[in-house]
Amino acid sequence: MAITAIKGFNDILPTESGRWQHIEQTARRVFELNGFSEIRVPVMEKTELFSRSIGDATDIVEKEMYTFIDKGENSITLRPEGTAGVMRAFIEHKLYAQDPVAKLYYLGPMFRYERPQKGRYRQFHQIGAEITGVHDPLADAQVLNMLVQFFRATGLDEPQLQINSLGCPECRPGYRAALVGFLESRLDQLCEDCKRRFSTNPLRVLDCKVPGCVEATIGAPSVLDHLCGGCQDHFTGVQGYLDSTATPYSINPRMVRGLDYYTRTTFEMVTGLLGSQSAVAAGGRYDGLISQLGGPAIPGIGFAMGLERVALLLGAQEFSIRPDLFIATLGAGERSFAFRLMHDLLRAGIRVEMDYDGKSLKSQMRRADKLKARYSLVIGENEVNSGTGAMKRMEDGTQTELPLRAEDIMRVLS
RNA sequence: GUGGCUAUGGUGAAGCGGUCAACACUUACGACUGUGACUCGUACAUUCGUCGGUUCAAAUCCGACUAGCCACCCCA
User: Fold this and answer.
1) How many CB atoms lie within 10 A of CB A397?
2) What superfamily in CATH does domain A325-413 come from?
3) Where on strand B do bases come within 7 A of a protein Cβ?
4) I want to staple A189 with a disulfide (CB 3.0 to 4.6 A). Which of A104, A200, A216, A253 is the partner?
5) In the prediction, which pLDDT does A1 show?
6) Regions of chain A short of the pLDDT cut 50
7) Which residues, including other chains, have CB under 8 Å from residue A302's CB and lie 6 or more apart?
8) How far apart are CA A63 and CA A77, in angstroms?
9) Minimal CA–CA distance to A127: which of A235, A55, A26?
C-alpha cells in the first residue's frame, strides 16, 4: 500500500490551486488597499501562548491542539489560529513603540485535531487581518467593511454579515449571572450538552441547535440589554458606521465565540451553503489580549477566514492558465529552431508551449487544443528554410503568414 | 470522543453466487504519410480497500480490520 497523506491533511492539486491563488490575490489586494501589511509568523509557538490567549477551558486548547515536546523538552504547539502568534510578534518586536496603530494581515496553515468533515480539516488555511491601537468603533467598521469588500471582489455575495457585542470585563459578569439565573429554572429542559455547558460556558447554551434548548431559551436575557454605557456606545457606533456606508448586516445577540479573548464587537460571515460549517469568516475585538500577553494596554480587533470554506463556495470555477502559443515541430532538426524561438518569446513574457518528445503532428495539435492554446504554429523544413510560417488562431482556424521572429509573433498575439 | 453511510480502473460507475468484470469519460496511438475540436478504429482492471470465513464456485454471502465521507461536539 502506497503512503497516503495524514488524515485531515489535504493536497491542493493543480486543478484547484488556481482558485486558491485567486482567493489569496484578492485578499492581498483588498487588504493592502485598506492599508494592511503582511506579517509572517511561525507555524509553531510555545504552548503557553495559546493556553493564555485562547483560554484554558476552550475546546481548542482542551482537546484540539497538536502539542508535543521537542528535543529540548519544550512544549510546542502547531498554531490552531493566527491572532495569538501575530500579537506575540507585535509585542516581542515592540511594534507598538513606533506606532501603536498597526494594520497587519497574515495567511497560512492552521492545525486543529478534530474529526474532519465537509469544510473542516486538521490542517486548514486562514487569511486574517488585525488592527491594533484603536478604541474607536471606526476600526471595527473598517474591518467589517473590508471583509464585505473581499467577498464582493471574490465574486461571492452570498455570505451574510452578523454582528453582536459580548460586552467587556465590566458588564459581562453581570450578564452571565443574569443568564445563569434564567437557565437555572429550566435546566431540566436542556439537552445533555447544554447541562454541561451550563456550568462550563453558559453563553454557549444560546447557540445550541437542539429544538428543546432553542425553545427553553426563548425568553432568555440578551447580552445587548446588559451592556455597560461604554459598550453600548461602542456597539451603537459600529452600527452607525456600517449604516453610513450602507453595509448590510444583521444583529445576532446569540452569537458566541469560541475563544476567550473577545470583548465587545464580535461578528461572523455566515452562509447556508456549507452544511453545518456556516461560518466562513469570524472575528471580533480583543481589547484585553495584548496586555494579557505581557504587552501594553493596547486594544485590537481582527478576523480570520477559512480558505477551504471560501474555496468551497467558489465551487469548480476554472482559473487555469492558457498558453498564448503552442509550437508544433515535424522533426528533430526543427525542434532546436523551435526551442530557440520559444526561448525568445518566453523572455518577452509570452506563454509558449512546445512538444517535448517528437510526437506526431496530430498528437501535437491535439495537445495544443487540450491546453487551450490561443495560437499554434507548425515548424517544419519549409519554415526553417524560409524563416516564415503560419500562425493558426485555434478559436476559428484562421491562419496568418508571418516571419518567424519574436517581434512579429508578438504583434499577432497582441 | 460519539453516531450513520460507503469502499469495483486515472474518473463516473454497472454488476446482487457460476463463460473474457458492462458502459461512459480520460489517456495513448491510428484512419488524415505537414495541422486540433466532430466522427470512426485499436489499446488501457489476471481483478473488485485489506485479512480471514462459508461454498464445488465469491466483486457478489458472513466477520474483523483499515480508509474515506457526512453528521454530532466544537469551530474558520
Assistant:
1) 7
2) Anticodon-binding domain (3.40.50.800)
3) 1-3, 27-37, 67-76
4) A216
5) 58
6) none
7) A83, A128, A129, A130, A131, A143, A283, A284, A286
8) 12
9) A26
C-alpha cell at A205: 447554551
Nine-digit cell string for A353: 508551449
Q: Report yes or no: A283 and A267 within 8 Å, Cβ to Cβ.
A: yes
> Does at least one atom of strand B sit less than 7 Å from the CB of A312?
no
Instruction: Name the nucleotide nearest A54; use CA and C1'.
Output: B75
- Which nucleotide is nearest to A58 if distance is taken from CA to C1'? B74
CA of A63 to C1' of B71 (A): 20
- Condensed to tens digits (0 to 9), the pLDDT of residues A137-192 reads 999 999 999 999 999 999 888 899 999 999 999 999 999 899 989 988 888 888 87
pLDDT at residue A160 in the model: 93
Sheet of A325-329, strands arranged across:
A352-354, A325-329, A375-379, A388-393, A399-403
The interface pTM score, or ipTM, of the predicted complex is 0.85
Nearest to A143 by CA among A228, A241, A68: A241
- The CATH superfamily assigned to A14-171+227-314 is Bira Bifunctional Protein; Domain 2 (3.30.930.10)
Segments making up each domain of chain A, as ranges = 14-171+227-314, 325-413
Residues 360-389 in A having a C-beta less than 7 A from any atom of strand B are: 360-363, 365-370, 376, 378-383, 389
Cα–Cα distance between A188 and A316 in angstroms, integer? 47
